[in-house]
Design brief:
The protein has 13 helices and 19 strands. The protein has about 450 residues and is α+β, with helices and mostly antiparallel strands. Strands 1-2-6-3-7-18 form a 6-stranded mixed sheet, covered by helices on one side. The protein has a 4-stranded antiparallel sheet with strand order 12-14-10-15. It has a 3-stranded antiparallel sheet with strand order 4-5-19.
């Protein structure tokens, strides 16, 4: 199967297809260009000879669905991706316009280049490549490309539950997120879940003079700080009663996978911009894959501008995201957080801002190793298997709602800067992603499910 020959012959046209998609705005948070981009994605699926393509509505943004049916007896792969992107702000930090894709030093710079337009377009172009190389696909392929991932995939669970029969598959295959350092590909078996909450304390009805009313009016920022000290200790241990009760310990096989993963402490320090990090490989991957987090992602109170303003703020808010691991339930954890706040600071309000469940597929599934080899052959570097990514994607919707195993194989470079200015995708990663998808499709026909 000479996929590389076909890819090389179509490099220019494939890049033109990608650039057209990158130029189309699709900012889900602002509903800017969403429907136009959905219609463009339908056009790209049809251009890849996907026989059945349709736009399916949700309560917010539409889902693009495509299906190439070979046989009722053939295995089925459901390819998931999203066409929506993050806002490009701050615009002034971009070296080129975010919706005018530009190639510099072998990289495509544009909003969505890595997350997720570049990766989902690699998968669409893979269908076109496979058909040109072989004339027919060996398996059934379905596409679900949503427009709400960057706002939390708020309608995906209900959409999948409603269309479970239509979406039935043997494997869900996603390409999203960055690869390992030095361009090593890997197969991710799952994700951490997430619970995002906001705590708000209010004291006075308005801000007060910190001298004239000092020691008289209580400061809500101190109330939140005192509350936070009851929720996490100096060693990073989460003190909310019952928080760890359902945490699933890694299996021996999962520990073996971690031992094989590459690790360079200096590279980790560079990637996160913190020279003081000290940890072993085992600690790094244990914390990333198997331990929950309790992170303050924002604290707002009083005056934060230039110079001084002597006030006692009337209110204070703290935003907290918790990354959850198997088998933590975000609904249960939210109740534990609410109970803890009621016990220690009953007048502090607790609001849930978002959640995702953790998810993981078994390393023993018959297609895991063939997928790893497919990525390795396409990228020309050793590929690895990691039990879970540190971040959160709507993966539980496949494993828990649809009841289908799911894997994630990122095609983007580790420094893709997704969600940031100057988001980028290495050009050769785009083409290697096309080849990887082709090889995965080819391998699936040999697997007994």
């Amino acid at each position: 199967m000479d996929f590389r020959r076909v890819i090389e012959a179509n490099r220019e046209s494939y890049m033109d297809e990608l650039f057209e998609v990158l130029r189309q705005k699709s900012i889900s948070a602002q509903n800017d260009g969403i429907r136009e981009c959905a219609e463009l994605m339908m056009e790209k699926l049809r251009g890849a000879d996907i026989g059945h393509v349709e736009l399916m509505e949700t309560e917010i943004h539409p889902v693009v669905y495509g299906e190439y049916h070979v046989s009722d007896d053939a295995p089925t792969i459901l390819i998931y991706g999203h066409y929506d992107v993050q806002p490009p702000d701050p615009i002034g930090e971009w070296e080129s316009l975010p919706f005018e894709p530009t190639i510099r030093d072998g990289r495509i710079y544009a909003r969505g280049a890595g997350d997720n337009k570049g990766q989902i377009m690699a998968q669409i172009m893979a269908i076109r490549t496979y058909l040109e190389a072989e004339g027919e696909l060996p398996v059934n392929v379905k596409f679900l490309i949503e427009g709400e991932e960057e706002i939390g995939s708020v309608n995906l669970d209900s959409f999948v539950a409603q269309h479970r029969e239509k979406l039935e598959a043997d494997l869900v295959y996603t390409s999203d997120g960055p690869m390992l350092p030095d361009g090593h590909p890997y197969v991710l078996l799952g994700v951490r879940g997430m619970l995002y909450v906001e705590l708000e304390a209010r004291e006075a009805e308005f801000d007060n003079h910190s001298g004239n009313k000092g020691n008289i009016v209580p400061n809500p920022a101190w109330k939140l700080m005192d509350l936070l000290r009851t929720m996490r200790n100096e060693d990073g241990e989460i003190l909310i009663e019952g928080f760890y009760d359902t945490v699933k310990a890694p299996t021996e096989r999962e520990r073996e996978l971690i031992e094989k993963l590459p690790f360079d402490l200096e590279e980790v320090r560079r990637n996160v911009g913190h020279a003081g990090i000290e940890m072993t490989k085992a600690e790094y991957y244990r914390k990333l894959c198997f331990e929950p987090t309790f992170n303050i992602s924002g604290f707002t109170s009083g005056y934060g501008g230039e110079g001084a303003k002597t006030i006692i703020p009337g209110d204070a808010k703290v935003k907290i995201d918790m990354r959850l691991v198997m088998d933590q339930d975000p609904d249960v954890i939210f109740e534990l957080v609410r109970d803890h706040v009621a016990k220690h600071a009953p007048d502090v309000s607790v609001k849930k801002l978002g959640q995702m469940s953790p998810s993981r597929s078994s390393v023993d599934l018959p297609f895991i190793e063939p997928i790893r080899k497919a990525a390795e052959a396409s990228f020309g570097k050793e590929a690895f298997i990691q039990p879970s990514m540190g971040g959160s994607l709507p993966d539980a919707v496949w494993t828990k709602v649809l009841g289908t195993p799911s894997v994630i194989v990122p095609y983007a470079n580790v420094d893709e800067a997704n969600h940031s200015p100057n988001e980028n995708l290495v050009v050769e990663h785009f083409f290697s992603g096309i080849e990887t998808t082709c090889r995965v499709i080819a391998e699936m026909k040999h697997i007994k499910l």
